[in-house]
Amino acid sequence: MHFRRLLESVLLLAALAATALAQPTVLEVLHSIDDQPFTPRGSLVYDPTSPKRTANKYESEVPIPDFLKGRDTSDRSLLYRVRVKGNNGVDLSAAVPVCLLQASEYREQLTLHLDSNGGPWHMDYLVDATDCDTSRKLGRSPRTQVLLERAVDGPRPKLDQIVESTPDGKPAKEQSFLAKYWYYIVPIMIILMMGGGGEEPPQGGAPARR
Amino acid sequence: MLLLLLACLLCTPVFSAIHVDQAGATDWHKELVGTPSHVFYTRTGQRSQLFVGTERNVLALISPKTGNSVWRQVLEPSDDLLSVRLGSHGLVSISGRRLIHTRLWDAQTGFLVWDQSSDGNVSKPAADLTFTGGGDVVTLINGETVTRLSGEEGSILWSSKLETSATYRCIYAHGRVLYLIGTKQSRDYPEVSIIQMDAITGRIIEEYQPPNGAVRASEDIFVAGDVEHVYLYWNGVARAYRHILGRQADVEEVEEVFGIESAEIVTVLQPETMHPDIIIRAKDKYLIARNPHTVVHTFQRAHLEGNIFATAHSLGKTHVLRLTRGSGKELRAELVDSTSAKAIGTYSIPFIERMSGPVQKAFLDVFPKKDGSIGFRIFIITADGSTKLLKDGAIVWTKEEALTKASAAVYVDLPEKSLLSQVHDELNEQPEETASITSIERYMRRVRSHYNKVKALPERIVAMSKYLFGSSNTHDDMDLRADMLGVRKVIVFASKTGKVVAYDTERGRTVWERYFGGISFWQVENIRTSVVKYPPVITLVGNRDESTSLLYRLNALTGDDYPGDGSNATSEFGLIRKVMRLPLEEPEDRTHLLALVGQDSQVYLHPDSPVARGAFETFLPTFHLYLTEGVGSSELGGFKVAQSPDGNYKLISTWKVEFPDDEKIAALGEVSKHEHVASLGRVLGNRSVLYKYLNPNLLALATIATTGTGPFDAQFTSVVLLYLIDTVTGSIHYRAEFKGAGHVLPDIPSIHLVQSENWAVVSYWNHGPEAAPSQIDQSTIETEQDLKKKRKKKRKPAAATSFAVPDAKGFEMATLEFYESAKPDSRLESNTFSSFQSKRPHVIAQSYAFPKRINAMALTATGAGITTKEVLLGLAEGHLYGVNKRLLDPRRPVGAPTADEKEEGVLPYRATLDFNPKEVASYHLYVPRIEHVLSSATKLESTSLTIAWGLDIFCARRSPSKAFDVLSEGFNYGALLTTIAALILGIWVAKGMAQRKKLNDLWK
Questions:
Q1: How far apart are CA B736 and CA A152, in angstroms?
Q2: B775 at A interface, C-beta within 8 A
Q3: Among A62, A141, B54, B390, which residue is least crowded by beta carbons within 10 Å?
Q4: Pairing state of beta strands B664-668 and B649-658?
Q5: Does some domain include residue B605?
Q6: What per-residue string of b and e applies to B891-917 under the rule 16 or more CB within 10 Å gives b?
Q7: From B829, which residue of chain A is nearest by alpha-carbon distance?
Q8: Complex ipTM
Q9: Sheet holding B510-515: strands in order across?
Q10: Is the peptide bond before A201 cis (omega within 30 degrees of 0)?
């Protein structure tokens, strides 16, 4: 058991060292419309080990408006397809309607989902628009956001939370007996003091009868 | 304010059980055992008993009088029942897969006497057993291990592993000798192979293959015997042969032995008791032949269909029964006393084959009647897998055991009483009809409607009073019209054996039943709800073989083909992968269109007409679908549909999710299409609102990734991943991993998922930290959000976000809620919602330990969705259990609740969901193996109709927020009526007084 833990620790350290030495990965980005063949669009750089969002970026070679120029995009069912390819066997694709992409003023979001080894296995491609209405242009500049997503830890039952706790996270101090029950004790004391005791019967004799 | 008050009222914690007199009043339970694979119909004097071992791994003693079980033992689903024999000590069973159990059960009580286990071989499931003269049990397990067990204690007396190339399936004891019968693979056909063993020591005496032993299959081998010899018969490739066991070279042709032509062995009578009689088919007749060489009786007319034989040994005689098919509406039974070779009689028994298919097996019981004549009962198993008991020319009882293999069910609302329906019909008028009707005709029609309403008023008052005084359930007549509360419906079950049964939900009575031979049903869709002119219609979807799917349209009230003339009632397609009910109607029939996705990536319409195509093509731009091979698959694909130049509809792939790290789909959740959402948001304690993320295309899905063979393997790790996937874009909005989570055992599915509105609940088994995979610690890789959190932490301590795997093996339920934003009062900045937009849902999650094993999970359903939902659990211990959604709230505060949380009424977090016996919907009833639970809304918003099935069928009503719209049973109607009467009287008196005063004032 100890040996297994030791081995796991060594492997973990090796993996961490490997990831620390890892260089940002460059992926080729291609695009197409509907069934047409993919053509180069730019490149995507991502670094699964970097905590900074800016470490993951897209570098454009062919702006989308240039790519769409001269094409008939009036058909609302036309799909703009994006494909990401890499030397490490990565080949992911996703699509959005062309009209939505145009309505978003080419503000797009590429999300790479990483597996347990930090390799991308799925891509989401979403845009900053909810309908194809291009009449309400806000004059925003095109933007390509690159995000990395890993599986988050699912919630587990907090079996150790049975310990009583307070909003500040510290257990409440145990109050003294008097502090806890003073509102019972005080009225009883007052009643006792107010009522006083009855006259004691004379010693050795029975109480007087009327 | 009023709404807030109502919401508070609904949210009040309600936990209510039922009173003794309420048990069975609004619920019903059908106890089933499964299709019998082993039957022992015994008689001792005046008492007959029916022992069965079934395909659903149940052992039971059935009462022949009622069909109810006297006792039943429900084994685990993975504990396959391989062999059962009835001996002098009781019922002995062999069952299991990886671990084989040989058990002795007390025949009268069903109590377990002893259990002996041994290692099993999944690739060799054959097992058999026999009894020695002293009552010991000799078992043959995996076709290779022979063990003698003490009949009284189950202890092993000896065990012998065969080292042979033959496969043995049967074992017989004859005196001191054991015979193992099997086959040995030869060049063309398998050949009969025999091992002779010493029953006392377990020593193999010899193994041999008799001459001419080539058979087509091991089912062609039969064993019969008498006191002196054991005879082995087999239908050889060309002829039938007989061999006396132990005499190696002694093989005779059956034709020569009995002096007949073209002999074919049909069956052996009572093979368990080594009876000497066998049934032989010879050209155009069947013979009862008795060893060594006598023909006892001849049944003529072998061409008759059916020819099922049964035998009974009682009253010191052996009787043989031959059942043949009559006209399709009757069975013909010929009874013969084979001991005295005398035909007793031929009887006709009414039997409608359309309902259950032909008889597959029959078991006979013969008994003396009071008048001295002979009576008989026949227990039959029909092609659909159900059982019936026939006596005195009638069916005494029927058990729909086929429904233990029911794969789908659908609720059908009954038509309203004609009065209301007439009004609906008027409102539902077609434009052409509106144009053609004159205003006088319309007026007359309305007058007629009102007249009918007035005429039916007394009946309505009677029905109302019956409901008020709780006597609505006492009538026995089946009224196929909707009731006041909407609890009377029809539920149609479709089974994998081709059986379709409709029950009324009020009392569980059979409305209709049908059998479709050779069809394995997997889906039922309600394609038309009922209006007076149109009966409700359902479509059944099933597979005939691996390349053909069939769709049947039936009238849901009668079970007849729809349309009645039979045209287009059945449609045949290539293999169908998915069937979807479209929100489009066929204008003529008012039936919903179905889209069928074929294995060939084509989409078909049903029914397919030019009008239907037109409607479908208008719908196409918004039609997205996803396909998966279901549980066990590792990918999910999204598609849209386009019309190809040849006019066909084809699938076009839009996205694909291939799960990483060897993940396999374990459970899929999907929001019900009939679900109603009552509120767009959740009101918090400070009066702000968290808006729900109500994306109809969101799919919750759970996958599992394991290493090693099982929990007992040192290399075993297991992790469950929960996904939220948008099925239009394939975007993954949430991915959470539950380390150490998985199935209890590989063959016990333990991951269940339900999804509704803006939330999902997943249940799984926690194997503990030792089963959590060790990998690169992702938590050490900080994201920008983590950095931001760290910065925030400096200002204010935040709650811990990492979750440790609990070191406690058990079931857990994780619950998730999705909101448009983490901030209250914040919404998506648009009037429209698009799956392609980059705004993702904010997910709040929490997890709870649950103390019972969960076999199935489902949700209640109500008309408007106002009532709090209840998560219904089928528990392994045989209960249907309800967990109120309030307990599964992910916003339950850990630690002391704040003032806002107290104001909101959320319960403080507790790590465990305690088992509350009051929430057991099936109260004391034992409802084992619940695999499916289906709910339907009633006309009462508080009440949901729920049916659970798997082995048994159990129907109950659930009111998760208590019956807030129904007056309690103890309500004092008398006081209410008296108060009303007093008020009316008071008003009348006061009115008179006021008038008098007014008049007097005027005179002044």
A1: 5
A2: yes
A3: A141
A4: unpaired
A5: no
A6: bbbebebeeebeebebeebbbebeeee
A7: A130
A8: 0.78
A9: B406-413, B489-495, B499-504, B510-515
A10: no
Q: Which of residues 797-856 of B touch A (CB under 8 A)?
A: 797, 801-806, 808, 812, 814, 828, 830, 832-834, 836-838, 845-849
Task: Tell me the CB-side half-sphere exposure of residue A45, using CA atoms within 13 A.
Answer: 11
Angle between helix B439-455 and helix B457-468 axes, rounded to 10 deg: 40
Q: What are the two backbone dihedrals, phi and then psi, of residue B814, each rounded to the nearest 5 degrees?
A: -100, 135
pLDDT of residue B712: 84
Q: What pLDDT, on the 0 to 100 scale, is given for residue B638?
A: 92
State the pLDDT at residue B467: 62
Residue whose entry in the numeric block shows the structure tokens 């999710």: B657
Note the pTM of the prediction, 2 decimals.
0.84
What is the domain range of residue B1004?
A: 977-1004
Q: In sequence order, what are the residues at sequence separation of 6 or more whose Cβ sits closer than 8 angstroms to the Cβ of residue B909? A: A158, A161, B846, B892, B893, B894, B895
A141 vs B: CB within 8 A = no
For chain A, give the DSSP string. -HHHHHHHHHHHHHHHHHHHHPPPEEEEEEEEETTSPPEEEEEEEE-TT---GGGSEEEESS-HHHHHTTS----TT-EEEEEEE-TTS-EEEEEEEHHHHHHTTSEEEEEEEE-TTS-EEEEEEEES-SS---SS---PPPEEEEEEE-PEEPP---GGGGS---TTSSPPPPPPHHHHHHHHHHHHHHHHHHH-PPPPPPTTSPPP--
Nearest chain A residue (CA) to B783: A51
B245 domain residue, yes or no = no
What residues in B contact A19, CB-CB < 8 Å?
Answer: 776, 781
Q: Is residue B704 part of a domain?
A: yes
CA distance linking residue B577 with residue B639, whole number of Å: 13
Interface of B with A in 584-623 (CB under 8 A): 621
Are B901 and B1002 members of one domain? no
Domains contained in chain B, number:
2
| pLDDT score at B833 | 84
Q: What local confidence, expressed as pLDDT, does residue B753 receive?
A: 95
Q: Does B889 fall in a domain?
A: yes
- Which of B916, B940, B968 terminates a domain? The answer is B916
Residues 629-648 of B with CB under 8 A from A: 640
**Mean pLDDT per 10-residue run, chain B (1004 residues)?**
42 55 82 93 86 94 92 92 90 91 94 90 81 88 90 90 86 88 86 90 88 85 82 87 83 83 80 76 84 82 76 83 83 87 87 89 88 88 93 90 94 76 58 76 83 82 68 58 85 95 92 92 90 81 92 92 76 92 84 91 89 89 90 91 89 90 90 84 91 92 91 88 93 93 90 94 93 62 50 42 79 94 84 85 94 93 91 94 94 88 90 91 92 92 93 92 80 91 96 93 87
**pLDDT value of position A210:** 38
Strand blocks (E) in B823-902: 842-850, 854-859, 870-875, 879-884
Instruction: Tell whether B810 and B705 lie within a shared domain.
Output: yes
Contacts of the segment A109-112: beta carbons below 8 A, 24+ positions apart: A109/A144, A109/A145, A109/A147, A109/B838, A110/A44, A110/A58, A110/A82, A110/A84, A110/A144, A110/A145, A110/A146, A110/A147, A111/A146, A111/A147, A111/A148, A111/A149, A111/B731, A112/A46, A112/A56, A112/A84, A112/A146, A112/A147, A112/A148, A112/A149
Q: Which of the residues A156, A162, A163, A173 would you substitute to probe the B interface, choosing the one with the greatest number of B C-beta atoms within 10 Å?
A: A156
Domain boundary at B892, B916, B940, which?
A: B916
Instruction: Look at residue B7 in the predicted model and tell me its pLDDT.
Output: 44
Q: Residue B526 in contact with residue B555, Cβ under 8 Å? A: no
Q: Are B848 and B984 members of one domain?
A: no
Which residues of chain B are within 8 Å of residue A121 when distances are taken between CB atoms? 658-660
